[in-house]
Amino acid sequence: MFNFLKPKPKTARPTFAPLGIDIHCHLLPSVDDGSKSNEESIACLRIMHEAGFNKVICTPHYQYPRFPNEESDIQQRFADMKLDLASQGVSSVIPELAGVAGEYRVDTGFTDRMSTNKFLLVGGHYLLAEFSLHQQVMGLDEILFELQMKNYEVILAHPERYPYYSSSSSKLQHFKDMGIYFQINILSLQGFYGEGPRRKAYEMIEKGWVEFLGTDMHNTLYAQALIDASHDHKIIKLLDTHKFLNSQVFSANAGEATKI
After folding, report:
1. What is the value of pTM for the model shown?
2. Which helix (H) or strand (E) holds 72?
3. What does each C-alpha distance from 150 to 112, 131, 193 come to in angstroms?
């Protein structure tokens, strides 16, 4: 069904091999606006493997009320997915499913979770958070500070996509001063979301603000864009000249992404 996705020809080093681990994708089927089936997930994972990723952490949306996911259900679905993919014998042509975490929208559901520490973490260590794509959230400083007081390392997903922040925003600088990590979407660098996010993504990287890159993979449309990105000479050069922290998300003290 998805054989129109043509991986790029084999090279000495696949483009995204320096990253190794993708920390942000929506390939756990039928839980959010990402993949709708294991078949679609496999098609995307094959492309990611060809592009150089050796591990993937699934990060479904937690967004109230649109995606009211529960951590225990997500963990079970992830375990079922791993079993199904193992039974299909595709392990040699897809990245390792290394963990399940979440992309948590800072909303009323998020503040409820903070009271119980009910989060699934990237690498058992990092909390991947996102803001609204349409309007600023009030009280962010207090929320982020409270998370840090609880010893969470916060990664802000795709700051280049928030239209109310410019690449030179004093608010983004403030987040960096607080010790918040930034994760840029690879497809932003390719222009998938438009020229504005592409420009902002590169400017943030040049400022030294970006620690992580992620695919934010949702479906085969994104997979095709990742193929295009793997041929983008500016992205290839970026990965040769900048060091990102993807490969370090599993430290000696942090195992598979899991619930606290």
Report:
1. 0.92
2. helix 71-87
3. 15, 20, 34
The residue extents of the domains of the chain are: 21-246
- 10-residue mean pLDDT profile of the chain (260 residues): values are 53 87 98 98 98 98 94 97 96 96 94 90 96 92 95 97 94 97 98 98 97 98 98 97 95 43
**Chain centroid, CA 96 distance in Å:** 15
| Nearest one of 131, 79, 126 to 101, comparing CA atoms | 126
Quick count: other Cβ atoms within 10 Å of Cβ 221?
13
Nearest to 103 by CA among 185, 170, 43, 166: 185
198, 225 Cβ separation under 8 angstroms: no
Task: Write down the pLDDT at residue 58.
Answer: 98
Architecture of the structural domain at 21-246: Alpha-Beta Barrel (3.20)
d(CA 150, CA 169): 27
